[in-house]
Task: structure prediction
Amino acid sequence: MSIRINSSKCIGCGKCSNICPGNLICMKGKKASIEFPKECWGCTACMKECKFEAIELTLGADVGGNEASMTVRINSGRVEWKIAKGAERVNIEVDPMDSNKY
Ligand code: SF4
Ligand code: SF4
Result:
């Protein structure tokens, strides 16, 4: 499980780099880059910080299949997870106030 950064969407704000607890993301020029993707443990902090949906998480076979990926958008305080696998699309909307109930 690791993130991928879509450089065409990245505007170089640096927020993902600042929040990663493992210091795995660095800025190269005006684009974010993950140096050691295998070290990423998929906490999704960088994804939630990025306002441009420039970071996606590739999902392991145990949670979605090897070809599935996930992006996230914060919309009016709600968290919208978008999962894509081939042509399949699933959207999951979560109220952060409820997220610790499960
Ligand atoms: S938070 Fe998003 S837009 Fe900002 S540097 Fe990171 S990937 Fe780029
Ligand atoms: S998912 Fe977590 S560990 Fe992986 S790069 Fe983003 S903030 Fe760092």
User: Anything to note?
Assistant: The chain is about 10% helix and 35% strand.
